Amino acid sequence: GFWGLVNNAGISTFGETGWLSMEKYEKFADVNLLGSIRTTLAFLPLLRKYKGRIVFMSSIIAYFALGNGIYSMTKAAIEKFCDALRLEMKKFGVRVCIIQPGNYARSTKIQPPVSAEEIWNELSDEEKAVYNKEYVQERANFFNSILSEGSANGNEVVDAMVDALTSPAPKARYMVAKLKEKALVFVCALFPTAVMDSVLSYALSK
């Protein structure tokens, strides 16, 4: 029978909210969110029949954003879709699992290095009147430094996916991340929003 479905497709980009076009928002929602929903709905009858597994690729970025709010938005939405689906599928014996990787940019190549020049050239006149090239360059350098720190051990995420598919008692969530990334999620989940905003603002200022 049909046992497992892994919704892994995803795209990423960098840019502050006003820098991105509505078309780009629609594309990201279509691939990262609606794509997973479409695939899930297509295979749901078989998964119910065979009491299978559904695995979704989320991210710790679902909890906070550092220059890629458009990606965070889609991952946060996936989390809520999975929360609803997991409860609904329990009565059918279908397990729903979420994988939450940390920074694995070097493994996945999901996000190429950011070019400040390309970003500037794509900005509208309104945005260029608010920002300057120096600011865009600073933000691009910051984001590129994050990408360069990504783990190259992509097998860690694959191992979590395999466990979600094969374990007799899979976890609802698999957070596969460095200790400092897990600490950031912990702060975001348990501390007031003002504290998290201060932490992220400090990181961005550096």
From TrEMBL:
Gene3D superfamilies: NAD(P)-binding Rossmann-like Domain. It comes from the Eukaryota. The keyword Transmembrane helix applies. It comes from Pluvianellus socialis. The chain crosses the membrane at residues 54-71, 183-204. It holds the Pfam family adh_short. This is BDH protein. Keywords: Membrane, Transmembrane, Transmembrane helix. The keyword Disulfide bond does not apply. InterPro entries: NAD(P)-bd_dom_sf (IPR036291), SDR_fam (IPR002347). Belongs to the short-chain dehydrogenases/reductases (SDR) family.
